[in-house]
Amino acid sequence: MAKFKIGDVVTLTSGESKMTIIGVYDKDSGNIESNMAHEAYSVRFGGDPLPYYGCSWFEKDTKKEDVFPENALKLV
Hints:
By secondary structure, the chain is α+β, with helices and mostly antiparallel strands. The chain has one helix at 32-44, and strands at residues 9-12, 19-25, 52-59, 62-69, 73-75.
């Protein structure tokens, strides 16, 4: 089960910029799209079975987005 939900504000455990969760990709979600995305990100991150999260943040005036494994994030 996912630890965070869409709209939560998180940061990397290393303490970088505040980011907003914009997507939750969990293999146990029951949603085929989420399951497929989880599978793809699992390959990217070495097979970690934890949920992955799409995050969005701003650097100056530029919007950035990326995906991170659950254990790389903490709630702000």
